[in-house]
Design goal:
By secondary structure, the chain is an alpha/beta fold. The chain has helices at 4-9, 12-22, 28-32, 52-60, 74-87, 122-132, 152-157, 162-177, 179-185, 193-203, 225-247, 254-279; strands spanning 42-46, 66-71, 91-95, 108-114, 133-150, 205-217, 287-299. The chain has one domain: Rossmann fold (3-Layer(aba) Sandwich), CATH 3.40.50. Helices cover 48% and strands 22% of the residues. The longest helix has 26 residues, at 254-279. The protein is globular. It starts with a helix and ends with a strand.
């Protein structure tokens, strides 16, 4: 069983929190103005992780879309399968290599991926999608185009304690010393948009477009309680995920893991204070802004 990524790189809950925000149904119109998805299509999401995009696109079309997800990590796929069964999503999930799938030629009208191409051998990754796409089908390559958090107002009233800062520094040193994880986190295959578009063109894709969608959220904007809490969880998720990856690494000592648990408690204390302020309607106007970078291309007819 392969669970390296979900245990050591990006935990299931943390990645789900981040992607649930970016692909939230509130932003469906922004995506659907750009993405070439139509009702009745058969869509495959490669490197689906915890399945946020597959569930969101299923919701966008109210189930009138045949959606499948594939990931090499069993932990993600098992999680996706459980959520699909629990929440009645008719989505098929498969463990597999995105660069060498088991799907037949011309199986899908559209293939999608988010922050995957930079982690794999992109030539094989795109060639495989060309193979499994039907003629006239679309490849959609998504990535983080920019990310910023405006949390200065939050830190003024909920400052990071000296203890938390010291523990964070110690955990980062441990994390940097783990060469395997460090290498996995390094996006060594990341290419510029221009290079990616040229590569797709050389493979025979046509009608290549580059688009960006801007996603913004503040817990204090008028919105549903669930979405505000999701934004707050986003503020803290990547801090906690660092500690979780250290806890899941068998090479770390019990003392280091104890330190990671202390850190999780400290971060959760800060998060609880922020949630309390939200519940008491105390406005901080902290916010997240991120771009979703999108490259779309079409498999031409022969």
């Amino acid at each position: 069983m392969n669970t390296f990524w979900s245990k050591n790189i990006f935990g299931i809950d943390s990645l789900k929190t981040i992607r649930d925000f970016r692909f939230n149904i509130r932003f469906s119109e922004l995506y659907l103005q750009v993405l070439p998805i139509q009702r009745g299509m058969k869509l495959l999401d490669l490197g689906c992780g915890p399945g946020s995009f597959t569930r969101c696109v299923y919701d966008w079309f109210q189930g009138d879309l045949q959606v499948e997800g594939l990931d090499l990590d069993d932990g993600y796929i098992n999680f996706c399968t459980e959520i699909a069964a629990r929440d009645h999503y008719n989505i098929a999930y498969t463990v597999g290599d995105a660069c060498n799938t088991s799907f037949s030629n011309e199986s899908f009208e559209i293939t999608t991926s988010y922050t995957v191409a930079q982690h794999v051998e992109d030539l094989s990754f795109f060639k495989e999608q060309y193979r499994i796409l039907k003629h006239g089908g679309y490849i959609v390559v998504m990535d983080v185009g920019g990310y910023s958090e405006n949390i200065a107002s939050q830190l003024e009233v909920i400052p990071i304690s000296q203890e938390e800062f010291n523990v964070l520094l110690a955990l980062k040193i441990v994390d940097e010393q783990n060469n395997i994880i460090k290498a996995k986190r390094h996006n060594k295959n990341r290419k510029s948009d221009y290079m990616t578009m040229n590569l797709l063109n050389d493979m025979g894709f046509t009608d290549i477009l580059h688009q960006k969608i801007k996603i913004f959220g503040s817990p204090d904007n008028p919105q549903s309680d669930d979405f505000s809490r999701l934004i707050i969880n986003n503020f803290y998720s990547h801090y906690i995920d660092l500690a979780i990856s250290i806890l899941n690494n068998d090479n770390n000592s019990d003392d280091i893991k104890h330190l990671a648990n202390i850190y999780i408690d400290l971060v959760n204390e800060r998060k609880a204070k922020r949630i309390e302020m939200y519940e008491n309607n105390k406005k901080l106007w902290d916010s997240i802004e991120t771009d979703v970078n999108i490259i779309i291309a079409k498999k031409g007819f022969i």
